[in-house]
């Protein structure tokens, strides 16, 4: 069941488009904002709300990188794995994250705090390597800086 | 017409086509995957690459996708240029990087479009040496098998399923090289047209599960052109047999009727042929184990001698069979095998078409209509392919929007984009919710009387000289006016109705609407649906309804009753039929499957199903169509008409005719309404290059060994005296006249796509014209109206008034003897308005014993929001449900 | 040297909001534009030689002129393409975050020129800060009467909305972007019909890059001649935001005239290579451009010159490869990106890119064979322009084909030594 708040927020998006089905991506975002990820049940509920079929919603949901159809931790780490970061030391950063958190791409820490995913170029190439934790962008990453950053997310 | 040049050959082509269509129509082999004549182009597979030149001086050209280029004036292309050929081979190579190469165990093998295109493109060497990506498969129900690893991502399945057939539970998921075609979660595919995925998919992702159970390669099947027996639309099929069982039904292209497709009932309902309830023995009194044929006929000739014999024909038996029976018992002793009510309805509809001024459309005409008004039918359940055609028709009025923007109609995605979800008017008035409601402009759910009244009101608003039913609510009046205006605003309106809500008033009102449109100068058409494959044929043949025949029999003391391919318990209530049957000394039943009626017979004679018989059906359009025996059964199950001839010969009424052609010719010659039906297909002595047309392919295997358990010498092939087809691989294998197509094959084209080679131009008519003959054409130009407006529906005090509710899987007799269909049929049910259900304290899925005309049946409760109060929607054709459908009562 | 696009952007990049923006002369162009004829603005922009900054470099005014001005339409749309996911590209972020009103102002002028009544700013999902800034700026612009149903009481109507995406590089392709805006899978669309004729929701639509749109107020305010004068290259009007990333001393962005040399960019603005490193090559305009190498250092950075050198100006933000970074590894990283981001619609891209990536991985792992280079070479042709449905795959082949040309020994070295010597 979607919450009243979610439904309200989704309906707010309707007026941006000529028909409500076009707000499908916004609706997925709303659900994800509240629940971290989008479950099969959420897809069905959204289908009802948007008068679409579950297949239609899921077809869209599974296309995009930033809609999570599997559970993720409290904070999602999006580590830029594109070319400038590669040149500037992605490998070291990744290894450090893997070692510190004990997870690989696609995995979630045992305490459910972090999920780590690769992400294409974050558009901050002059400050590579870079990553996003939750909503925050971190740049010019070094192992020391990473430790500090991770510690600030409880 | 545009002048273009393909491979140096100058051609005149329709500039509204694309270069792929033009190339194929001109006979050039260009490989393709994502394009389909009914789905248009999207340019995703990149397989149809050709080289296009700017002008005569351009010798280099550039690679383009022929499916995405208009065949515009002056186009110059080469399908054979090295760059194009190389690129096409490379596309196959790319597709093959993830294809499992499991052809030996793949059901598609041997008729696989991907195999054909691979060979055609010339890719042979594999350079890819890495692991392939794999997918999990899904359970998709009893009809379709899913094997995603074989997918080549052409997107045809979703485009067919969603965009063409209106389904919404199949889609594409994920992206890049992980795109997945299936359902959001495992489960039965809901579309009634899912089976076409088998033919639409160019490889073995979606295959026929019923075929899989007793798998046979295409080249090992004995195949014959057939007509679907599961509704009155009469879709053209190819039925295939091996080892005495029918193993699959494939669509047979007929531009005028089903085009490329079939519904799932037609495709998967065939297994009653293989049923363990097949009648294979001669039963006479005292023999449950069966007797020899001669013993049976001895018994019959003795017991018939000197007795009055009456006969009951059947709307599911061929015209020849009904005619033979009528000959045998005499016109005055022949029943069409329908109850009085059903016969009246069928006759009314047929007579309206024959005597009226409005044309009954072919499905192709339906597809070309622009606005639609359906009265009283859930077409998807009762005449499924008509519903699919209506889905296409409603796009016609919005398509010109694309023309205006300069987008050719074959350019599928942009056309859809510019049209958005808009469509032309489709108005539906029905007793219960229908499967076309999702695209309906308006829906009106009410009792048949009220549907008729709405119809008459619509007729009034089209032609105000016609009476406006009194007492209509403002709401209904407004609706009627809107429907009238919508129909008037298009040039080609279509009115659809039929016998399924059992109301003559609905049929009449539909006719009045159509006639009014005709008089308003519209090229209107009127399509009626009927219950069975030959309802129209038997109605046109004429005879008595059951009640009349049996009542007369009582007074005339007829002693012998012959019933042919008819389960009378599906026609009238059990008590009535029991009483009727009890008056006869002998009840001789000819049928192929056990029924309640055969259980009451004193004599049962086995006969062939459609696959063991030649015959003619007349479809709801009035088109006579021929079907052919597929194989020679091991047991003695001849066609019913031949059986009746044997009966005649065993009694005092010998038949002169012996071959099918004799029979069908005497129908054609003796009854003017059937003039010409003998010639709808070539006669038995027809030959191509001195040969009959072969039912088996050149590659048919195992022939010398398959019956070695019976006789190690190969058995002498049976000669087909009835048709121009041979039962073996001996014979002509090329393209035969369209009525004799046993399979589609052309050099390099083993899949269903070979149909392209049989058409005058791709997607168009078959060479020599599509088979079949329309027997009903409007001859009169004068308008005649019924104007018999019924009283509005009143809630009955006695109980709820039943309206029959049809289910594509469950309501039709023969298909419900097929396991896959049984799996989809569900239990008998009663649909109730929420208020009626509440009053009776019933909820969804409750089990309930109902009584209709005293006949009890156990049914499930379904709350139907759209059903009017006071009505009960009862599952028609389900076991135990009284077919008479009068008032229904029940106790909680 | 004039820097119209960035002159008002604060050194710390903190956004400029409406008061400050107006005080610096902001929104003047709206008043001016609304008093002009739409066709007049189109003509002006055409003459200014503003070329699309999204990568393709098509004349912007000319592109606008394909929008039908007669006829009945439910809507006409203007969409700002702020998807910016091309690896190595980070210029639009600066413009959005630093000066959101410049973008909005440019969009109003553009919308008026094509008579659009609805607009969207499409921003990639990861740019959460940029989205916040735009949302605030939009609210301010509505408040001030620059947006809405009756702009500056002239009766002109233009409603502009923010749409944040949910990731995928292909959303940057303008037709895929439109599908995404419609809430669908972001597969590109067939062209023709071009979006100008049938775009968003089937209506006439213009999609322009953020940087392209940010130039509009200045062209309207100062004229075509002025704009042409900003550039050192005749035919390429205006300035360009150039940038550099990789192991240079001062990675960053600089607004410069078209026609500066690559050497000047690299050595003056980016401060040259870091100590101890040598310049090996660069992708001049993002991941889907061909490598330029030392011999190209003196070419001018404008559309024609870069094309003549066998590459593309692209987004103008270069990625610099040094001699201590493995070129095979770099190309592998790029092809991994493209393979991941393929939409999966057309065969060559969907199947060819993962195959390319696998071969590169094999070479990088020291398992490569000489024949693999032929297969790579083959792929660069197979996924060449015209063979695929959209430009993603041909773009993906640009760095590969040029790497095979300029760094062939490095590939061969991997194969011969059965290892990556850079590791
Ligand atoms: C795969 C692909 C990705 C693209 N990504 C972007 C992008 O992120 N931003 C952008 O402005 N243009 C991008 N483009 C170019 C757009 O398709 C389009 O040409 C551009 O937005 C038009 O704007 P302009 O005329 O102002 O350059 C991309 C093109 C392709 C083929
Ligand atoms: S080249 Fe083809 S598969 Fe690749 S992104 Fe474009 S359309 Fe999609
Ligand atoms: S048939 Fe032309 S691209 Fe698929």
Description of the molecule:
The complex is a heterotrimer of chains A (154), B (892) and C (423). In chain A, 44% of the residues lie in helices and 12% in strands. Chain A is built from seven helices and four strands, in the order ααααβααβββα. Chain A has a four-stranded mixed sheet, covered by helices on one side. In chain A, α1 (4-14) runs antiparallel to α2 (24-35), α2 packs across α3 (40-50) and α3 (40-50) crosses α4 (54-61). Chain A is elongated, with a radius of gyration of 17 Å. The mean pLDDT of chain A is 97. Chain B is globular, with a radius of gyration of 28 Å. The model of chain B has no long low-confidence stretch (mean pLDDT 96). Among the domains of chain B are: 2-98, Ubiquitin-like (UB roll), CATH 3.10.20; 282-342 and 537-681, Rossmann fold, CATH 3.40.50; 360-523, Dimethylsulfoxide Reductase, domain 2 (3-Layer(aba) Sandwich), CATH 3.40.228; 800-891, Barwin-like endoglucanases. Chain B is of the alpha/beta class and 892 residues long. Chain B has a six-stranded mixed β-barrel. Chain B has a five-stranded mixed sheet with strand order 2-1-5-3-4, sandwiched between helices. A five-stranded parallel sheet of chain B has the order 14-13-20-21-22, sandwiched between helices. Chain C has 423 residues and is an alpha/beta fold. Chain C has three domains: 18-229, Rossmann fold (3-Layer(aba) Sandwich); 239-322, Ubiquitin-like (UB roll); 327-417, NADH-ubiquinone oxidoreductase 51kDa subunit, iron-sulphur binding domain (de novo design (two linked rop proteins), Up-down Bundle), CATH 1.20.1440. In chain C, 43% of the residues lie in helices and 13% in strands. Chain C is built from 16 helices and nine strands. In chain C, the strands form two sheets. Chain C has a five-stranded mixed sheet with strand order 3-4-2-1-5. In chain C, strands 7-6-9-8 form a four-stranded mixed sheet. Chain C starts with 17 loop residues before the first helix and ends in a 6-residue tail after the last helix. The mean pLDDT of chain C is 97. The chains are: A alpha+beta (154), B alpha/beta (892), C alpha/beta (423).
CATH class identity of the largest domain in chain A = Alpha Beta
List the chains of the largest interface with their residue counts: A-C, 39 and 58 residues
Domain count of chain A: the total is 2
Under CATH, the topology of the domain at 282-342 and 537-681 in chain B can be stated as Rossmann fold
DSSP strand content of chain B: 15-25%
């Amino acid at each position: 069941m979607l919450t009243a708040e979610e439904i309200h927020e989704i309906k707010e998006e309707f007026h941006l488009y000529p028909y409500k089905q076009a707000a499908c991506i916004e609706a997925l975002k709303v659900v994800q904002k509240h629940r971290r990820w989008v479950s099969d049940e959420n897809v069905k509920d959204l289908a009802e709300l948007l008068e679409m079929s579950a297949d239609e919603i899921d077809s869209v949901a599974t296309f995009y990188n930033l809609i999570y159809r599997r559970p993720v931790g409290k904070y999602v780490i999006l580590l830029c794995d594109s070319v400038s970061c590669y040149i500037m030391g992605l490998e070291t950063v990744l290894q450090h994250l893997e070692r510190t958190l004990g997870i690989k791409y696609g995995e979630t820490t045992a305490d459910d705090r972090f999920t780590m995913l690769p992400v294409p170029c974050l558009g901050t190439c002059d400050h590579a390597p870079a990553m996003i934790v939750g909503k925050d962008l971190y740049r010019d990453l070094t192992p020391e800086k990473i430790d500090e950053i991770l510690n600030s997310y409880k | 017409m545009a002048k273009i040049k393909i491979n140096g050959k100058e051609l005149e082509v329709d500039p509204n086509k694309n270069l792929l269509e033009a190339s194929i129509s001109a006979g050039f082999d260009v490989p393709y995957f994502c394009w389909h004549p009914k789905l248009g182009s999207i340019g995703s597979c990149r397989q149809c690459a050709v080289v296009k030149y700017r002008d005569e001086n351009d010798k280099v050209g550039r690679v383009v996708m022929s499916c995405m280029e208009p065949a515009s004036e002056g186009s110059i292309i080469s399908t054979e240029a090295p760059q194009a050929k190389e690129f096409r081979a490379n596309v196959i190579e790319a597709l093959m990087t993830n294809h499992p190469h499991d052809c030996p165990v793949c059901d598609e093998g041997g008729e696989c479009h991907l195999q054909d295109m691979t060979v055609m493109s010339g890719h042979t060497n594999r350079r890819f040496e890495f692991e392939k990506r794999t997918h999990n498969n899904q359970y998709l129900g009893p009809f379709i098998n899913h094997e995603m690893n074989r997918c080549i991502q052409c997107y045809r399945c979703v485009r067919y399923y969603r965009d063409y057939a209106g389904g919404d539970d199949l889609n594409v998921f994920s992206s890049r090289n992980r795109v997945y075609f299936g359902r959001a979660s495992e489960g039965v595919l809901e579309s009634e047209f899912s089976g076409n995925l088998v033919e639409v998919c160019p490889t073995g992702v979606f295959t026929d599960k019923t075929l899989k159970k007793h798998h046979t390669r295409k080249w090992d099947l004995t195949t014959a052109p057939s007509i679907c027996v599961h509704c009155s639309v009469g879709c053209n099929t190819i039925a295939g047999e091996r080892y005495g069982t029918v193993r699959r039904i494939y669509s047979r292209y007929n531009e005028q009727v089903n085009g490329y497709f079939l519904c799932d009932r037609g495709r998967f309902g065939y297994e009653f042929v293989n049923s363990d309830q097949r009648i294979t023995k001669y039963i006479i009194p005292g023999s449950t184990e069966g007797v020899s044929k001669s013993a049976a006929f001895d018994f019959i000739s003795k017991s018939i001698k000197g007795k009055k014999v009456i006969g009951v024909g059947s709307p599911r038996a061929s015209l020849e069979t009904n005619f033979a029976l009528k000959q045998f018992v005499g016109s005055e002793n022949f029943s069409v095998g329908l109850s009085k009510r059903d016969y009246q309805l069928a006759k009314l509809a047929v007579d309206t078409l024959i005597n009226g001024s409005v044309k009954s459309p072919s499905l192709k005409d339906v597809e070309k209509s622009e606005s639609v008004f359906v009265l009283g039918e859930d077409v998807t359940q009762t005449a499924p392919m008509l519903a699919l055609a209506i889905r296409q028709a409603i796009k016609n009025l919005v398509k010109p929007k694309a023309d205006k923007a300069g987008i050719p109609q074959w350019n599928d995605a942009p056309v859809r984009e510019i049209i958005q979800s808009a469509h032309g008017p489709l108005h539906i008035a029905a007793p219960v919710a229908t499967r076309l409601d999702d695209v309906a402009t308006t829906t009106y759910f009410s009792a048949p009387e009220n549907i008729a009244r709405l119809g008459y009101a619509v007729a009034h608003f089209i032609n105000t000289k016609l009476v406006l039913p009194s007492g209509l609510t403002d709401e209904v009046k407004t609706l009627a006016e809107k429907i009238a205006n919508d129909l008037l605003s298009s040039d080609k309106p279509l009115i659809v109705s039929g016998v399924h809500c059992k109301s003559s008033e609905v049929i009449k009102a539909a006719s009045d609407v159509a006639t009014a449109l005709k008089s308003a100068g519209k090229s209107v058409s009127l399509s009626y649906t009927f219950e069975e494959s030959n309802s129209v044929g038997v109605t046109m043949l004429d005879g008595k309804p059951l009640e009349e025949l049996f009542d007369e029999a009582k007074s005339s003391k007829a002693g012998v009753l012959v019933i042919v391919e008819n389960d009378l318990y599906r026609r009238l209530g059990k008590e009535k039929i029991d009483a009727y049957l009890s008056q006869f000394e002998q009840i001789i039943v000819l049928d192929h499957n056990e029924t309640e009626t055969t259980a009451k017979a004193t004599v049962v004679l086995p006969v062939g199903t459609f696959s063991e018989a030649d015959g003619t059906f007349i479809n709801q359009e009035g088109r006579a169509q021929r079907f052919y025996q597929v194989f020679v059964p091991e047991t003695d199950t001849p066609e019913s008409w031949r059986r009746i001839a044997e009966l005649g010969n065993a009694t005092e009424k010998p038949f002169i005719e012996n071959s099918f052609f004799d029979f069908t010719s005497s129908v054609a010659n003796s009854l003017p309404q059937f003039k010409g039906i003998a010639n709808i297909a070539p006669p038995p002595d027809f030959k191509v290059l001195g040969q009959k047309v072969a039912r088996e392919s050149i590659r048919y295997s195992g022939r010398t060994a398959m019956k070695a358990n019976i006789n190690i010498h190969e058995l002498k092939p049976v000669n087909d005296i009835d048709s121009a087809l041979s039962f073996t691989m001996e014979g002509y294998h090329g393209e035969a006249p369209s009525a004799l197509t046993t399979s589609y094959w052309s050099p390099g084209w083993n899949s269903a796509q070979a149909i392209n080679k049989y058409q005058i131009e791709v997607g168009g008519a078959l060479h020599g014209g599509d088979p079949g003959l329309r027997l009903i054409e409007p001859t009169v130009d004068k308008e005649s109206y019924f104007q018999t407006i019924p009283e509005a529906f009143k809630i009955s005090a006695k109980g709820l008034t039943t309206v029959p509710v049809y289910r594509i899987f469950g309501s039709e007799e023969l298909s419900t003897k097929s396991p896959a269909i049984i799996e989809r049929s569900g239990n008998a049910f009663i649909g109730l308005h929420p208020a009626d259900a509440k009053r009776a304290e019933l909820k969804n899925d409750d089990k309930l014993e109902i009584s209709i005309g005293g006949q009890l049946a156990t049914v499930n409760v379904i709350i139907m929001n759209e059903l009017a109060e006071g009505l009960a929607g009862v599952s028609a054709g389900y076991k135990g449900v009284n077919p008479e459908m009068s008032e229904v009562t029940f106790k909680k | 040297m004039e820097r119209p696009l960035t002159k008002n952007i604060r050194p710390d990049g903190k956004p400029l909001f409406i008061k400050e923006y107006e005080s610096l002369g902001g929104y003047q162009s709206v008043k001016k534009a609304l008093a002009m004829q739409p066709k007049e603005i189109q003509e002006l922009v055409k003459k200014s030689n503003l070329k699309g900054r999204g990568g393709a470099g098509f004349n912007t005014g000319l592109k606008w002129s394909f929008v039908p001005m007669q006829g009945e339409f439910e809507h006409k749309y203007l969409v700002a393409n702020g998807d910016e996911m091309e690896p190595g590209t980070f210029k639009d972020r600066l413009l959005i975050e630093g000066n959101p009103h410049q973008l909005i102002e440019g969009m109003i002028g553009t919308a008026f020129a094509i008579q659009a009544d609805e607009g969207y700013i499409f921003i990639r999902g990861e740019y959460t800060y940029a989205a916040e800034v735009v949302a605030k700026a939009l609210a301010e612009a509505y408040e001030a009467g620059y947006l809405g149903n009756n702009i500056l009481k002239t009766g002109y109507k233009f409603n502009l909305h923010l749409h944040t995406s949910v990731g995928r590089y292909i959303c940057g392709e303008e037709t895929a972007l439109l599908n995404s805006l419609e809430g669908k899978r972001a597969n590109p669309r067939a062209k023709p019909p071009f979006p100008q004729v049938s775009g968003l929701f089937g209506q006439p639509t213009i999609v322009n890059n953020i940087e392209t749109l940010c130039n509009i107020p200045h062209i309207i305010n100062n004229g075509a001649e002025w704009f042409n004068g900003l550039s050192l290259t005749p035919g390429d009007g205006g300035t360009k935001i150039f940038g550099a990333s990789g192991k240079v001393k001062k990675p960053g962005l600089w607004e410069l005239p078209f026609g500066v040399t690559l050497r000047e960019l690299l050595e003056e603005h980016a401060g040259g290579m870091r100590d101890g490193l040598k310049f090996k090559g660069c992708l001049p305009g993002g991941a889907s451009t061909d490598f330029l190498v030392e011999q190209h250092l003196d070419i001018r950075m404008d559309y024609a010159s870069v094309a003549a050198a066998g590459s593309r100006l692209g987004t103008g933000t270069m990625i610099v490869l040094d001699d201590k970074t493995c070129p095979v590894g770099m190309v592998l990283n790029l092809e991994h990106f493209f393979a991941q981001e393929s939409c999966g619609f057309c065969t060559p891209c969907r199947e060819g890119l993962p195959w390319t990536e696998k071969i590169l991985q094999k070479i990088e792992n020291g398992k490569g064979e000489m024949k693999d280079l032929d297969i790579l070479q083959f792929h660069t042709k197979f996924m060449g322009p015209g063979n695929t449905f959209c430009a993603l795959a041909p773009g993906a082949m640009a760095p590969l084909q040029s790497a095979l040309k300029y760094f062939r020994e490095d590939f061969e070295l991997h194969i011969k030594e059965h290892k990556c010597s850079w590791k």
